[in-house]
Amino acid sequence: MYKLDLHIHTCYSSDAVTRIEDLIKIAKKRGLSAIAITDHMKIKGALKALAINEDKSLIIIPGIELHTHAGHLLALNIREKPRLYNSLSEVIEEIHNLGGIAVAAHPFDIISPFKNLHRYANILDALEAANAKTLNYQSHINSAFRYLEKYPSLAFTAGSDSHIPETIGDVFLEVEEDIYNPDDVITAILSKRCRVRGSRSPLSARIKKLVKTIFK
């Protein structure tokens, strides 16, 4: 059984504090098989993790969380920052040209939703069904899977959206088939041969994040 946390921030995000070295150690300790590093508007942390990770049992998926006019967009399995365009469709096309997949991040979050999701459902690859940071955690999952019934071409991901070490791996995708590299992870996502596991991060984690970010 493989556990994939597909939304993690490091100290390269302005609002996160987890060091790359600590992330790798904690991910292994918590039994994660693959992690996607998706810092806000930066890919440097993901590339550093790829460079220093010597344990092939932990798959590093380089990515980024882009801030767009529609909402936050995860680009997974890319090695350079996509150019930002006026059109979201052009951003998604750029992600595809870089060999990655485009995922609508926490699309049904009550605080930071993805606006007009239906406009982009046919060009997005997936939506984030579960995000451990969302206050409306269970209703978010329910909304996501109802939406996926309407748009069967969409796949789904899940992640902790961790900004501090304590929440790494709180939510993840569980995959039964063997995965050996980032491409295998992407294949498992797109084939929907996975399940959402984990639970919402405690509200105390938000306070820890705020305090740690202030003193970063």
What's the topology here?
Elements: E1 2-8, H1 20-29, E2 34-37, H2 44-52, E3 59-67, E4 72-76, H3 88-97, E5 101-104, H4 117-120, E6 126-131, H5 137-150, E7 155-159, E8 171-175, H6 182-191, E9 195-198, H7 203-214
Parallel strand pairs: 1-2, 2-3, 5-6, 6-7
Antiparallel strand pairs: 1-8, 3-4, 4-5, 8-9
Instruction: Please state the structural category.
Output: alpha/beta
Please give the oligomerization state of what you see. single chain
Question: Unreliable runs, pLDDT <50, ≥5 residues?
Answer: none
CATH architecture: Alpha-Beta Barrel
Q: Please identify which CATH superfamily we are dealing with.
A: Metal-dependent hydrolases
State the shape. globular
Radius of gyration, in Å, reads 16 Å
Helix content: 25-40%
Q: Which fold does the CATH topology refer to?
A: TIM Barrel
For the record, the CATH class is Alpha Beta
Query: Mean pLDDT across all residues, rounded?
Result: 95
Largest sheet: 9 strands, mixed
Task: Determine the strand fraction and express it as a percent band.
Answer: 15-25%
How many separate domains make up the residues?
Answer: 1
The strand order across the widest sheet is: 7-6-5-4-3-2-1-8-9
Distance between the termini: 36 Å
Figure out the total of helices. Answer: 7
Number of strands: 9
Q: Give me the strand/helix succession.
A: EHEHEEHEHEHEEHEH
